[in-house]
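#dry-run=false #mode=assembly
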Amino acid sequence: MSVIYFLIGCSVVLALIFLTAFFWAQRTGQNEDLYTPSVRILLDDSEDADTEK
Amino acid sequence: MTGNPTIEKISCYHCGDDCLTEAYTLDDKHFCCHGCKSVYQLLSESQLCNYYTYNDHPGATRARTDRRFDYLSEPAIVSQLIDYTDDQVTMVTFYIPHIHCSSCLWLLEKLHKINPAVHYCRVDFLKKQLNIRFDHHRISLQQLVELLYDIGYEPLISLQDVIKEQSAATKDQLVQKIAVAGFCFGNVMLLSFPEYFGISAYEHSFRLFFGWLNVLFSLPVVFYSGREYFVSAWQNLRRKSLNIDFPLALGIAVLFIRTFFEVATHTGAGFADTLCGLVFFLLVGKFVQKKTYHHISFERDYRSFFPVAVNTIVDEKEKPVPLADLHTGHRILIRNNEIIPADAILLKGHALIDFSFVTGESVPINKTWGEIIYAGGRQTGEAIELEVIKPVSQSYLTQLWNNEAFNHKQDNRMQTFNQKVSKYFTVVLLVIAISSLLFWLPTDINRGIAAFTAVLIVACPCALALSTPFTMSAALSIFDRNLFYLKNTAVVEQLAAIDTIVMDKTGTITTSDNDNIRLNAQLSDEERELVYNVCMHSNHPLSRMICRYLGTHKRLNVTDLSEAAGRGITASVNGYQVRIGSEQHVSGYSRNTSAGTKVHVAVDGNYKGYFAFAHQYREGLKNINGLENDYELYLLSGDQDHERFELIRFFKTTDKLFFNQSPQDKLDFTGKLQEHGAKVMMIGDGLNDAGALKQSDLGIAVTDNVNNFSPGSDAIMDGRSFGKLPAFLKFSKDTVRIIHASFLISLTYNFIGLSYAITGKLSPLFAAILMPVSTVTIISFTSLATHFAAKKRKLS
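#status=ok
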């Protein structure tokens, strides 16, 4: 049953990674504007790519 | 199509307005004006015509083509506007009111194709903000703003920077704190389950391991997420007041200490999951309460409506000067559509000043050479030169802001229910806790301490602390849906406590457009000319409306002019004697006619007919009749009293109608009502109401466009929902009743918990179940009850 120590350690570390990821997203302002990207993704930039290449 | 081509309407390819001429065409596309055409030209040259494919007519009309951004070359002004600068790049954020569709987004993020000096553009659609990073060696801020202007996106630049205030406000890391608390809550719950289900004796080492892990997880919850509760409780203690944060902080502290001791002494499992859950739910409640409207500012004062800079004339040359540096004696140049920022004397030019921002009256007023023009007026017509006689902050209009009403911060002018109750709650809680300690102390010290801590844990007013935020945020979203925007949740309770309503007239209960004159007379062109010339000489609002209605006519020589106040005008023009005014004044007798203001006309003693003015009161103004039983209603108007009898229909008596009120009078009147113990709600619109809005217990600004200027206030109401005011007031009372009910529910839970706690036998499992159950009950009760109340008031 001592494997539980290891398993719980793993789960906590995994959860900590997610928490850090969330903090990073928050710090870099990824959650600040939750609406504009949903509009932006609908605009195609094919013509844009043509001229830049 | 074979029809007459003049009937077929062509709309502008750029902005969608009707094209009145066919003079502006390019690539088979029609434009309404040169401005729109030049935007299209600019975009097609940069191959950005996709702009027109995402939406039809995405542009703003460009009929106005004067650009004036010279002041952006002043380094002092520039440094106030930009966010960041170094040797290479400058970053700036603009507020652009026209951002409204995906085309706007697309075009504004392609600025670098028009000017490569722009490195990066990002639009925040809901906030209508554009963040730009550009190379300031290759393009100046002025050129950048002009570029935005040229493509039809003029930024709104004002001294009072709303953008910066917003970003300063959102730095309290509440979301991070919730994340940490949630993370710990989840883990602790998982680790507590074995204890609740029972661990056999030989697995004792697990129990120890889980216990210490729980303590470890509680640490960030208490010291990071829950820190503000301790800070707030301590600050309030030092001010010798008890707020709800005190029992909460006490609960958190006791939970943590008892958990630590139980784990350390192997006497129990502790209350780690109750602790984490408590902090988590509390923070969520805080988050819900903080609703922000990005597009509305409640703190605007005159600075956000005055220009950033004015053109002064120094040695025959124009020089832009920041508003703050404008002194007495400066000669300033005001062009068409510019606002006069300080009281000044007219030196040169023909001034026709629109004071609609100040008084709500939109008909421009003539001013002659040497007259004093008060700040806040907007020049219409040619450019004029003025000499400043008072600094900006001392001017007639702006000196209101020097009044003490503006100086002390009064965020929560009334105590909320929560604040009132939590005082007594805390005292009662402490009394119960200490008496249970004293009760057990002689017989069993351990049991005494157990009972003491258990009381503090169980009675921790989590549900109480949550009832207000959840009810209020539900109420706020109901108001929001009905175009009534409240500054914060406390305003709902203030709304419910109001007993006196003071209203402004122009712009508040009337709509702003005045085009509703009906001419009920046969007037020849010559007679129209006569009437126009007589009315030109009168400052009465009705005369000015008649002038506007008749349009411009030739100026004639007017002699023997006499104006009898409240009755009418008599004058001789071109040998005709013209009488204009009330029926009594014009024809000598008065039939008692029905409602509606009329101005009668007689030329040389022959009665010609009358002008009828249908007053455009806001739809639903009649609904305020219903308020009469519960509220004292007052009307304060800056106007003359010519509408007194019209208004009786709505206000029943004339004793509560006050006319000729200056902005300062309005403020004083509100203050006087408050001295007599009234809870005053002021409803106004213009800058002239700003003082009274601030002085009142609850100021509501009415506006036809929430993005436009509205003075500082607690709430902003869209003019269209004015008729719902009685429903709003009733709904706010319902909301307070819901809070009272949920308080009773949480008290019931507390009593159940307490009956166990005082015996000193509180099991962790019981606490762990009671806390979430009570929380969930409160949350679901408040949101359901609020929506039910909204449905009852027909607001949902």
